Amino acid sequence: MASHTETKKIPNGVKAIIGLVLLIVGAGLSAAIVNLPGGLELNFGEIIATIGILLILFPAVETFYTKPLEDAINDRNSSLEKTFSEAEDLRNQMDKMRSDYEKRLAETEADARQKIQAQIKEAQALRQKLEADAVGRADELIKRAHDEIAAERDKVLTELRIEVVNLTLGATEKLLGENMDSEKNRMLIRDFVNKVEVPS
Amino acid sequence: MHDLKIAKRYARALFETALESGDPKMVAAVEDDFGGIVSLLVNNPRFRSLILSPEVNREEKLGLLDRLFSDRITAVSLEALILMIEKGREDEIEWVQREFVKLRRDYENTIFLVVTTAEALDEDQRLMLIGKLTEITGKKLEAEYRIDPHLIGGIRVAYDTYVLDGSLRGELRRLRDRLLHDVLIQS
Lengths: 200, 187
Hints:
The structure holds two protein chains of two kinds.
Chain A: H1 12-32, H2 44-179, H3 182-195
Helix pairs in contact in A: 1-2
Chain B: H1 4-20, H2 26-43, H3 45-52, H4 58-69, H5 75-86, H6 93-107, E1 110-117, H7 123-137, E2 140-147, E3 155-159, E4 162-165, H8 168-186
């Protein structure tokens, strides 16, 4: 960040005019001055002309070299500042995006946690229901098995009783056949005749 | 092919003819005639094949009837047989006889009994039985006596749709039914 301090400077044009004047005056003086013999050769005209040349050269240098260089440096500085500014903006955007991302991440995590909790609850409810169903089915199967066992036992008992009845009656029939004689037969027929009734 | 309706119609016509003949013994005579012919049909395969075979023509059958029965059965019976042969109703002879007997029993208000015993009944037992049954039914009775050792002992009397079972076999069956009923109730 370059800071520009405004200083009161003599314009270059003025400097160039003053230099030109001094150059002309110095050249005139140089031609008029007579060198003193035996002494130090001192030419005021050349000095003035040199000062004038310098006064001309300084603005020229400033105009054609220093100023473009300063402009280039300023442009560069400006470009760098812009780049820094853009980088700063980018960083701010990145920070904002990171913040948004973290916020979204947190929301997503919360949402996911909530969904997971809901799923866990649902799974627990389903598990309880399945367990209850399984228990109910197992109870039903046990009851059915008990019923079937009882029915089978009753069936076997009934068959056994029927078999006992058949055996008993078979034995009875055999005994009756062996013990039946004509006299007993006559007695049976007499009883029948005495007791017989005709169905109405 | 046997047709009971036709047999009943022939039997009724025969029975009414016998009744209207004026001879009080005609019904019994016709019944005896048909009983004898049916017995012959049942017991004599040659006679049966001649009378019932569709390969023997009508004239031969009529000639056979004439030769065998003309001087042995009543004219009413013979005419009925000839009519049945002429109409091709030889198959109905046995059924006509049965229906005739039923008609005669209905007419005389008689009940037909089948008495089955393990041993043959003597005359006293038969009289005692028929006397008692006549007394309680109030009808004349005709009995057919059968012997079936399977009954073990006792007696069984069947008539119409009734069975009076005083046999040991029947007692055992009833006892078995009661026991099985109890067993099934318990289970």
